[in-house]
Amino acid sequence: MDDVRKFGMIEAMRKYGGSFIVSLADCFMRADSSNFDKLCMAFPEYVEKYLAIAGRDATQQSMHQTGLTPRQKEEVEQIIMRALSKSPRW
Length: 90
Hints:
mainly alpha
């Protein structure tokens, strides 16, 4: 996972998570690469969920800046969500 995706996941955890997820985001932020990988293996469902949320947020932000019509934005979002659902898991 590249640094941009890591940061996006952590930010999504901080923005949308409850108290446990926010604390977990702090752990991810402080972890070195070895411990980051261990956290990913320990909490794969949260990693997957918040990576998807971060991807969706980034997509929505970029689409907002493109000037696409609402229908076009919806079509692009559906394509991206299908692609995310096919991405390899941990």
